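Entry 14. Structure prediction run on the chain below.
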Amino acid sequence: MPTLSSKHSSSSNRPADKTIGANKTSTGEQANNANVPAGEKPEAALYLVATPIGNMGDITDRAKKILAAADLIACEDTRVTRKLVQAFGFTAPLIAYHEHNADKVRPILIEKVKKGNVVALVSDAGTPLISDPGYKLANTAIEEGIGLTSIPGASAPITALTLSGLPTDRFFFNGFLPNKTGARCKSLKELVSIPSTLIFFESTHRLAGSLADMTAVLGNRPAAVTRELTKMFEEVRRGTLQELADHYEKAGNPKGEIVVVVGPPAAETVELSQSDLDAQIKDALQHNSLRDAAALVSTITGLPKKKVYQRALELSKENQK
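Output returned:
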């Protein structure tokens, strides 16, 4: 039987931690930050700022300091972030940055930093770049050589993992699975041999179907479904994938934001065909050196690094013929 627990509760690109002195020239946007004492303005940079995933009390002091001093806050949905800025009295203007306008807005944000502004990037909830379009913005900041740093804080995947009761020493975050069963099962097959705890985001109306597909493809592993993390009606339901699939099929769609955590496969069930191993190595070689590709595949599959390296060397030589 599934168990339930709930609670009711309320680099080089990294800018130095020092503050900018009086010789910093203010811009019109910086005038928005009247609540930041003179001489304590953070350095111009792109700040990746984690925000609460539900409980406003989880915002960090550093996050509040950066958002209070920001000249511009880039966010996924201005309606969502406006609630945050109003709750804490932040005054910087908001600009939407999401997958549909990223190519247009990204140069604007980079240029703002180059002109001496403090630009903060936030997601709707949690840590930016985790299942949101911020990756390309951060990568562009690195390429352009402008200041880039992270203001860490809440993260739904990590919170769910720690509450799941499943192994935390190795985990793989997959984000959202595809909507349709066929594509979803295909994606799950790629994860079967990973000897780690798996973490997924899922929508409420697809939860029962996704759990059923996970059972069919991954096997009846131990798992946990977490929802409304850090909020008043936080809930963690634990059981096997089959038990959880049966529960939500009968109970219907739950409310709130959901993270599913699935335990690793039993050691004796992890089998990887030669063709699957070759496919993983070839994919890794597209983006990594031979040594790094072997290390990556070894970590993912649990196979000895020496064995993977030797096969990667063979495949590399074959491609050169």
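The two ends are 57 Å apart (CA to CA).
Filed with the rest of this week's runs.
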